[in-house]
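Aim 2 progress. For Energy transducer TonB, the working sequence is reproduced below.
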Amino acid sequence: MEPKKNPKSDVSRNSSIYFAVGLALMLAITYMSINYKTYDKSDIALESLNLDDELEEEVPITEQIVTPPPPPPPPPAAPEVIEVVEDEEEVEETVIESTETEMEAEIVEVEEIEVEEVEEDIEVPFSVIENVPVFPGCEKKKGNAAKKKCMSEKVAKFVNKKFNTELASDLGLPAGRKRIFVSFKIDKSGNIVGVGARGPHPGLEREAKRVISLLPKMKPGKQRGKAVIVPYSLPIVFQVQD
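Predicted structure tokens for this construct:
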């Protein structure tokens, strides 16, 4: 009679599982052995840090100075003894008289008070004045613009005629264009006042003032029907030859 084998005791039944588990264990051991690192003990320096040395700090002992409180203020002075004196002097009462006039009093007539008007010296620029000053010979011009143009032409012609152009060479000025800025005012009577000049040489300034002072008397300019002062300015330009 043949003995029967227990199927659970068959070793070859789970051989594939055992093989896979063994292979996985071998791979894990191989991976760990490859990545395993070792260090030399001589390269590692271990130092101990003593924190107690740094925490021990000497704290200076300071003395607290107690400031004494200020002395109390002195007591108030005792009030002086006030003596009560009887008022025996008689005071004269001031009687205020009435300023009202009686019916029978005569009323003095007051003469008329004349108020003198003080005329102010008003200056109105030549460019905006209502009635421009009239240069002799420009009376027949109609309109403010025509009279302005006529005056400018007359003043320029007068300066060119009277100005001594040879003075520049006598003063030793270099050749070239010379410019003198001249300003003056036409007062409320038509006279030339306040002449000023600014140029490259004092001699030219004196000559410009002399010529402008020779301008004839004009009809004064008016603003709102009243004569006013009119400032005027012009440049004098001439050429100095070599």
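The mean pLDDT is 76. This observation will guide construct design in the next reporting period.
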